[in-house]
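Summarise this fold before class:
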Amino acid sequence: MEPSREVPFLDGLTMKEIASASAPDADVYTKFMMNHCCYDAIPTSSKLVIFDTTLQVKKAFFALVANGVRAAPLWDNKLQCFVGMLTITDFINILHRYWQSPLVEIYELEEHKIEDCREEFLKYSNHTLISITPDSSLFDAIYSLLKYKIHRLPVIDPESGNVLHILTHKRILKFLHIFGTMIPKPRYLQKRIEEVDIGTFKKIATVRETDTVYDALAIFVERRVSALPVVNEEGKVKALYSRFDVIVHRLVLVDKDDVVGGIVSLSDLLQALVLTPAEISRRAQTLTTEEKSGH
């Protein structure tokens, strides 16, 4: 076994020296992410599924479910490069658009290829691939995830062009949980959720028990949310319906009568722990995105 080593950390200090600091900083997690690169968060073993754009949409989504993954990079053999991601959100958009369309029967979609659907959706949204390099900081990765409102960020080797891993909110928070135990915890972590600026507490998107699946799909598309609390006639939470109903990454906050009061997501956690201390607000990210798109 190799002897333990002091790992150089912030400003030349070691983890032990920082842990012994008398006053924990509010931006300690921000600095932590700035001083670790994306490669650090890549697990030694993980599953990666890649689709060719000529694959049928039906087979692609069956493959996602069968492999227990929520997204896959798309490879364009003609261009010889990755051109985007296929996600559960794409599947929901496809179902929502064609379910009640008088022009296309739903069974016809079984023959559609990924490249056909991408051409159709490119008319309505930007499907350019957003990626990051393994040497980029985790702070940059978090900023990209939240700025572009995406849940998966491919880590691509600039030399080979290969996808090494797909970073997610969950993976980054797990990395912080495992390797951030030696750094001081900000005092605001002791506060109640209602005392800090985290989560969504206004205009919560919900779905009723009596609503149809199509109603839920419409809300997913129109409100751009990834999870819906299922409520009864009294507004009390009965379940949580997510885009990919296997692992739910949302905390629904209810009052003493079980009525929905708010929702805290993994995006909210990363925003509060990393970007907010760096004085990067959600509004600033939104404005930057709008300026870039020319709106």
Remarks:
- The longest strand covers residues 81-87.
- Residues 282-293 form the longest helix (12 residues).
